Amino acid sequence: MSADRPVPRGGDRRPAGPRTAGAGIRGGRPLPRATEDSSRRTAAPRPGGGRPAPRIPRPAPRPRGAAPSALRGAVRLPGRVREAWDRPLTAYYVILGAGLLITVLGLVMVYSASQIKALQNGLPSTFYFRKQLLAVAIGSVLLWFAARLSVRLHRALSYPLLLGSVFLMCLVQVPHVGVSVNGNTNWLSIGGPFQLQPSEFGKLALVMWGADLLARKNDKNLLVQWKHLLVPLVPVTVLLLGLIMLGGDMGTTVILTAILFGMLWLAGAPTRLFTGVLAGATALGVLAIATSPNRMGRLHCIGASDPGTGCWQAVHGIYALASGGWFGSGLGASVEKWGELPEPHTDFIFAVTGEELGLAGTLSVLALFAALGYAGIRVASRTEDPFVRFAAGGVTTWIMVQAVINIGAVLGLLPIAGVPLPLFSYGGSALLPTMFAIGLLISFARNEPAARAALAVRGHNNPLTGAVRRTMRRYARRRPSGER
C-alpha cells in the first residue's frame, strides 16, 4: 500500500475486495448505518462460493386487533354454509347424491354381509349380491322415470298405484298364493327365486294417493273441516293396515301409520284431532303386541345383554357394533356374519357395517340419511304446490321413520320390527318403491321455479347433453394454434 494513502480507521489494512470497495462509502461520504447493514446482508456470499443469497423481506406487522386469516375463515364459515344451502339447486344435488351414495354403499355391504349366508344355504357366494344388483339396475330406471315425470303425471299415477297395491295385498291372503317368510305371510312368488312384497308398494301408494287427495281438498278449502281431513284418508289407511296385519307384519304397519300422521300434520290437523288419532293407533298397537307372544318377546329384548334370554339376534348385533372400534376390522372381515347374526344382509346390515367399517362408517351412513331427510324437508317447506308439499313430506317421513326403526333395533333401543334399512339393506321389494320415491323428490326439487331457471342457464336439463354443449362452447372460444 502507498504511504500517501490514508490508513482506514481501526487499523484495518485488508485490501478492498468486493465487499468493502463500495459498501460504506458513496462519493467519499460514509453511508448511514442501516443502509450499510442492508447492503451487507444483500451482498453476503453463501458459504462455499456462488451467487449471493437473495434478501428475504420481513412480513409487515399485523395491525393490533386484526384476526388471523384462519380465524376469519372460521367466523365466515356458517355464513358460507348458509349461503350454499340457500342456492336453488342445493336440494336437487343433495337428494341425488345422498340417495346414490347410500345405494352404492349398500351394494358393497350386501356383497360383504351375504357371502357366508349364501354359502350356508348352498348357493353361490354372490347370489344375493347379483339379485340386489339387478334390483338396483331396475330401480335406477324407475328413479330416472320418476325424476322426469311432471307433477300432473305423478298425480295421475296415484290412483292406479293404490288400486294395484290393494289388489296384490288381497292376493297375498289367498291360500296357496301368498308365501310366508319368517312367520309373516306378505309375499308373492313371481317365478324362480324372485318374490314380491306388495306392502312395500303400499307405502308409495299411500303417499301419492294421500297427497293428491289432500291437495284437491286444499284447493277447495275443505281441510278446515275435520271430516274432510279424515275421510276417506283414514279409512283407506286402515284398510291397508288391516291387509298388512293379516300377514303379521307389525313393522310395516308402524311405518304406514307414521306416514298418515305426517301427512295429517302437514295438512294442518288440529291438536285435538291429531291426539285422538294417535291415541287410537296407540291402543290398537298395544293390543296387537299384547296378543302376540312373538311381539312381546321382541319387546323384552330392548337393551338385552345376555343371548341366553332368547334375544340372540339383538345381543349379537350389539357385539358386532362393539367390536368395530373407530375404523372397523376391515371390509369383509366381520366375525358375526359367520352364523351369529341370523339376518346379516337384511335387518342387521347396519351391525355388520359397524363391525367392518367402525364408527366412521356408521356415522357416514347416518350423515347421508340426515342430509337426505333435511333436503326432503326443504323441498316440502319451500314449494307452493300442495301436492308437492304433502308428497315430499310423506316420502321424507317414510324413509326417516323406517331408518330410525331399523337402526334403533340394531342399537337395542327399539324392538326388532323386521324392516330393512332404506336403500341399504338387501331386498328388491323394498328397494324399488324407495328408489321411485327418491326420483319423486328429485322431480320436485328440480321443478322449483328457481331450480328450473338455474338448470336452464347451466344446460343441465339433460346432464349428458349439457356437458357436451359446454365442452363444445369451450373449444369454440379457443384460438387456432397458429394465431397470434
TrEMBL record:
Highest taxon, organism lineage: Bacteria
| Keywords tagged on the record | Cell cycle, Cell division, Cell membrane, Cell shape, Cell wall biogenesis/degradation, Glycosyltransferase, Membrane, Peptidoglycan synthesis, Transferase, Transmembrane, Transmembrane helix
**InterPro entries named in the record:** Cell_cycle_FtsW-rel_CS, FtsW, FtsW/RodA
Under which name does UniProt file this protein?
Probable peptidoglycan glycosyltransferase FtsW
Q: Please state which protein family the record places this protein in.
A: Belongs to the SEDS family. FtsW subfamily.
User: Does the record's keyword annotation contain Membrane?
Assistant: yes
Location of region: Disordered: 1-71
**Membrane topology recorded in Swiss-Prot or TrEMBL:** Multi-pass membrane protein
Q: Which Pfam families match?
A: FTSW_RODA_SPOVE (PF01098)
Please name the source species: Streptomyces polygonati
Q: Where are the transmembrane segments?
A: 90-113, 133-151, 158-179, 233-266, 273-290, 357-377, 398-417, 423-445
**What Enzyme Commission number(s) apply to this enzyme?**
2.4.99.28
Q: Which pathway does the database say it acts in?
A: Cell wall biogenesis; peptidoglycan biosynthesis
Give a short account of what the protein does: Peptidoglycan polymerase that is essential for cell division.
- Report the enzyme's class at the first EC level: transferase
Catalytic activity reads: [GlcNAc-(1->4)-Mur2Ac(oyl-L-Ala-gamma-D-Glu-L-Lys-D-Ala-D-Ala)](n)-di-trans,octa-cis-undecaprenyl diphosphate + beta-D-GlcNAc-(1->4)-Mur2Ac(oyl-L-Ala-gamma-D-Glu-L-Lys-D-Ala-D-Ala)-di-trans,octa-cis-undecaprenyl diphosphate = [GlcNAc-(1->4)-Mur2Ac(oyl-L-Ala-gamma-D-Glu-L-Lys-D-Ala-D-Ala)](n+1)-di-trans,octa-cis-undecaprenyl diphosphate + di-trans,octa-cis-undecaprenyl diphosphate + H(+)
Tell me the organism's taxonomic lineage.
Bacteria, Bacillati, Actinomycetota, Actinomycetes, Kitasatosporales
